[in-house]
Design brief:
The structure holds three protein chains of three kinds. Chain A has helices at 8-18, 20-34, 42-60, 63-87, 92-110, 136-140, 145-163, 165-175, 177-182, 187-213, 225-235, 240-262, 269-273, 275-289. Chain A is mostly helical. Chain C is 70% helix and 3% strand. In chain C, helix 1 packs across helix 2 (41-49), helix 4 packs parallel to helix 8 (204-222) and helix 8 packs antiparallel against helix 11. The chains are: A mainly alpha, B alpha/beta, C mainly alpha. Chains in contact: A-B, A-C, B-C.
Chain lengths: 310, 362, 362
């Protein structure tokens, strides 16, 4: 069952791995934006996560601790963003961009002594006979545990936002901070927590790049993944499961493009490499012009700062 | 052009005070400056240039002082950095990326007493500009020999960055060497359209492996393809630019190392001795600029022997990476039997040799 | 207990005082960072902030500040109009690239014709290129209500692909031995954007930046469109009642910022950068967003902010070469400066009150 020399099960399996970093970062950013905050510093937080995770994993020899270290690194950088935007009421777009600049610089400083080192390996989960099931074995049972963890996180965020009181409050803060404040919710505190979560998820995604996808540290290792994550959030119209779809689509097109080349298909490479971005735009147009009006789904207070005057 | 004379005068005045202007007679002390296109922590291209700078410091001790600037964008920024360096008393400036060609030549005209060394370019518009490059494609012969002998699927891969002569030279040399030892070999090419994007490089390697490719050469700078190869038993690859020793003995079975140290030492020494002259240097394995990293025992003895033989034959000049008869992809003749190409053909190479499938993106 | 109270109008004292305070704080924090890296903090700060303005080579570097600040101001001032109206063009980088590609394509298409008309037509083509690229998100926004942040950002990546295609394909120098990169504009007088006064760094792009600043200042202060922009940003509902057509505003603001970014691109490619190359895009479009906010979306403020930003670049290069500070430290330092500048803004918009009763909680 091949298509232009490409085996679908293999393609799906590899796109699942390829999309983990952007999926994690995007689901974190989704929570941040649901709380009404736009943090454009995802790239900076991801790369901080990549280096902090790498340093921790190399230092301790444990990939698990590495991922925790990565999450901590991303969250630590997001503290700066939280402090500036929530306490000092700075513009979120500009602060986020500055955060990326700072994160790229700081990660490179931390990583100076870590170039050319190999991190401890994160192995695939031994599913035994399940792996040998045709098609599904390769697609579902051949990955490392982070692939499953990332899907689980999507499910948790979805359930958390939809069914829990905390999720309700978070959405309320994002939809109208003044009303939420009037109801007695601590807008600033909730937003800070959301930003920290977003930072931790971006850090986790970054750590996946430096510990599993590439495994190594080099300057600028995330090379733009954070920006893609931002795109996916909007593409997903702030719905957790669509983040999953969006990430697979993005990961999928890149992987497909390279697979087609490897299979010797005569395709104009350079146009294919812009196709994920064009696809996103097209899908966005379709979604926002349809009846659903996806853009109406954006949190009403997105990007606006809150200051309780009384 | 008034600014140029202004600058030249200023530089001249400066040159007098720091004791320049006496190149022909040799110098006691040289300040050598380096402009890098990437961060020194890239683990590949720029990292190796910086290693060359450190070799220079080690070799010449207190007779040389070095300074560098990393991640300099090509264009206006490069011109400013170069001017700042020349003003700041650098006696010789190495500009280590092709994209600095125009900036190097423009600044060199304003500072006739400062020596400029431009890597991988071809313009030498004033007498104080030299160019240097390395015949990296020679290393591809060793890799191709190993690839042709080691592949079980008869599919070998090449991850290209951009379809430019530098990359096409390596790609063609790799394929020809592989075909020489294994006529059934097929080459799978992926153009990544990046010099450095670890995640994309990993995906490219993965896509090749899924297509049955079991030997992967790369012309991009990260170790990601090797890390990807390490996940599948039986797949091997090569270190690119730096040794990438972390992946020894397999999948990294050997490597092509950019070893700029000997050239940097030679040029600065010449400046110290007063024997410095404008040159256009394009050295390879023989002079040590292209270094073949350890060929590991992960290879069967006969493959290792063949690889070493290929390396030594190129070093002593008995073998050339491109020896006729070679046809271009469309079947037109390029080199006649036994003929080797002039450097001009190599510098401007813009075609696949016969046998490679697919088109070069135009 | 500290409490913030919004000022009815921004404090005049603090709107001038905060940048000074922020720079002072950055010097302290940055100095600590440099000291941690084992460098003399005072020397580093002096190299970054003092030397480009008053140091030994200030006669050259002052002009370079203009070269660096010109495109930043030109792009930022256009963006600020949209930002004031709540229209978020994050893709100025893409418009900058397309401006350069369009302008360069026009100039190179008629090479080597010499005519006084060529340069002005190139400039128009550049502005058109940027405008077209910004019209895509504008039309999608007005017709389909598609989010302009995302579309403009995605188009940056598309533009970058087109750029590398231009450099390796349709605009490649036919005499360049197959190397990527277009012909050099410095060798083509009719299409060259030289320095107007030698040694000042002042090229037509800098002049355009000054004109754009004045134009936007007048637009915002004196023209009905400026009023509508401000109204739409502060009170969108009120703007609707006042007869402001939001779609018209979107087309206007995106179009104007795109055209200005395109102008910056074509001035850069024909002047300081000198050619289309793979790495032509150097992040001006993104940095300009920060500059716009540092300048508080005020045209005159943006002019100052772009010069401060340029100072950290040019001074940072000096610190990197002379003191061996890693480029990454400079980047982190720039990040700090932005954090402090943005954070200190609080003082100009809010009053800090000390209250004895700690009842007030939020």
């Amino acid at each position: 069952m091949d298509f232009m020399g490409i085996t679908p099960s293999v393609l799906i399996a590899s796109l699942m791995v390829a999309s983990v970093p952007i999926m994690l970062a995007a689901i974190g950013e989704l929570v941040v934006e649901k709380a009404g905050v736009l943090n454009l510093g995802v790239e900076g937080m991801m790369i901080m996560g990549a280096i902090c995770g790498f340093v921790t994993a190399v230092g301790t020899g444990s990939p698990l601790l590495g991922f925790l270290g990565g999450a901590a690194g991303g969250a630590a950088l997001s503290v700066i963003f939280a402090l500036l935007t929530q306490v000092f009421l700075t513009n979120q777009v500009a602060t986020g961009l500055a955060l990326t600049l700072f994160g790229l610089g700081l990660s490179s400083l931390i990583g100076q002594d870590y170039v050319g080192i190999k991190p401890p390996a994160t192995g695939a989960i031994p599913f035994g006979p399940l792996r040998d099931i045709p098609f599904f074995g390769k697609v579902f049972f051949s990955h490392d545990w982070m692939v499953y963890a990332s899907v689980a996180i999507i499910a948790l965020v979805w359930a958390g936002l939809k069914f829990t009181r905390a999720g309700l409050i978070l959405r309320a803060v994002g939809e109208g901070h003044d009303a939420a404040h009037a109801l007695g919710y601590k807008v600033i505190r909730i937003r800070v927590l959301a930003i920290l979560f977003g930072g931790a998820m971006a850090g986790l995604g970054g750590a996946y790049i430096s510990l599993v996808r590439v495994p190594q540290w080099t300057d600028g290792i995330t090379s733009g993944a954070g920006w893609i994550a931002l795109a996916i959030v909007v593409f997903a119209s702030w719905k957790p499961w669509r983040v999953l779809i969006g990430s697979y689509l993005f990961g999928g097109i890149t992987v497909l493009q390279l697979n087609l080349q490897a299979a010797g298909a005569r395709i104009p490479v350079e146009y294919l490499s812009m196709s994920p971005y064009l696809m996103t735009i097209i899908v966005l147009v379709i979604m926002s012009s349809g009846k659903g009006r996806a853009s109406l789904n954006a949190p009403a207070s997105l990007g606006q700062n809150f200051h309780a005057s009384r | 052009m008034k600014r140029r004379t202004l600058l030249a005068t200023a530089a001249l005045a400066l040159g007098m005070t720091v004791g320049g202007g006496a190149f022909a007679a040799g110098m006691d002390h040289v300040k050598a400056c380096f402009v890098y296109v990437g961060p020194i922590g890239d683990g590949g291209y720029t990292y190796q240039h910086n290693q060359g700078r450190l070799d220079l410091e080690k070799a010449l001790g207190d007779k040389v002082e070095t300074a560098y600037q990393e991640s300099v964008p090509e264009g206006a920024d490069a011109e400013r950095v170069l001017t700042q360096m020349a003003l700041g008393g650098c006696n010789i400036i190495f500009t280590t990326s092709f994209g600095y060609m125009d900036a190097t030549n423009a600044v060199a005209k304003k500072f006739p007493d400062v020596k400029f060394e431009h890597a991988t370019g071809f313009k030498r518009e004033s007498p104080n500009v030299s160019t240097y490059n390395a015949r990296f494609y020679e290393g591809r012969v060793v890799q191709g020999t190993i690839a042709g002998m080691m592949t079980k699927s008869n599919k070998i891969g090449y991850i290209g960055s951009y379809p430019i002569p530098e990359v096409l030279r390596g790609l063609n040399a790799y394929y020809l060497a592989a075909k020489k030892v294994n006529p059934d070999v097929e080459l799978s090419v992926i153009w990544a359209y990046t010099w450095f994007d670890p995640a994309k490089e990993a995906d490219a390697a993965k896509a090749m492996i899924e297509q049955g490719v079991d030997v992967i050469a790369q012309h991009t700078d990260s170790t990601a393809p090797l890390a990807e190869a390490a996940k599948t038993p039986g797949v091997i690859g090569f270190g690119q630019a730096s040794d990438m020793a972390a992946y020894k003995p397999s999948p990294r079975v050997t490597s092509t190392i950019d070893n700029w140290g000997p050239y940097y030492i030679k040029r600065v020494q010449a400046l110290l001795d007063g024997t410095y002259e404008q040159t256009d240097s394009w050295e390879g394995i023989a002079s040590g600029e292209v270094e073949i990293g350890e060929i590991t025992d992960a290879l069967p003895p006969e493959v290792k022997a063949a690889a070493e033989a290929a390396r030594d034959a190129i070093a002593d000049g008995s073998r050339h990476a491109f020896t006729g008869p070679i046809n271009k992809q469309d079947g037109t003749a390029w080199l006649a039997d036994g003929q080797t190409p002039p450097d001009g053909d190599l510098l401007g190479m813009n075609f696949y040799v016969e046998g490679i499938k697919g088109d070069i993106p135009q | 207990m500290l409490r913030l109270e919004k000022r009815p109008t921004p404090s005049r004292f603090w709107s001038w005082g905060t940048p000074v305070l922020a720079v002072a704080l950055t010097m302290i924090a940055g100095g600590m960072l440099f000291a941690l890296l084992g460098k003399d903090p005072f020397l580093a700060i002096k190299t970054i902030f003092w030397d480009p303005l008053f140091g030994e080579f200030a006669w050259y570097l002052r002009g370079q500040l203009l070269v660096k600040a010109g495109p930043l101001a030109l792009i930022a001032v256009g963006l600020s109009l949209g930002f004031r109206a709540g229209i978020w063009n994050i893709g100025a980088e893409g418009q900058y690239i397309m401006g350069a590609v369009f302008g360069a394509a026009v100039g190179l298409a008629v090479y080597p014709t010499e005519s006084r008309l060529i340069f002005p037509v190139m400039i128009l083509a550049g502005a058109f290129g940027g405008w077209v690229w910004a019209m895509i998100p504008a039309i999608l926004k007005t017709r389909f209500n598609t989010n302009e942040i995302l579309v403009s950002l995605m188009l940056v990546y598309v533009a970058e692909t087109i750029l590398s295609k231009a450099a390796t394909g349709f605009l490649r120098n036919p005499e360049g031995h197959g190397f990527p990169g277009s012909r050099s504009f410095s060798n083509y007088p009719a299409a060259h954007n030289p320095e107007i006064f030698a040694g000042t760094g002042m090229h037509w792009g800098v002049v355009a930046a000054f004109i754009a600043v004045i134009f936007c200042y007048v637009l915002l202060q004196r023209h009905i469109v400026g009023f509508q922009i401000k109204l739409a940003g502060q009170a969108p509902r009120a703007a609707r009642f006042a007869g402001v057509d939001p779609n018209r505003l979107v087309v206007l603001c995106l179009g104007l910022s795109g055209a200005l970014a395109g102008l910056a691109g074509v001035f850069e490619v024909s002047g300081p950068a000198g050619q289309i190359s793979i790495d032509f895009s150097s992040g001006y479009g993104f940095t300009a967003i920060i500059v716009a906010f540092l300048g508080r979306l005020n045209p005159l403020g943006i002019l100052l902010a772009s010069l401060v930003m340029a100072l950290t670049y040019v001074g940072g290069e000096g610190a990197s070469t002379d003191l061996g500070l890693p480029k990454a430290a400079i980047q982190a330092f720039q990040g700090m400066l932005l954090f402090f500048l943005l954070g200190a803004d609080l003082l100009s918009n809010y009053r800090i009150r000390f209250t004895l009763i700690g009842k007030e909680t939020r």
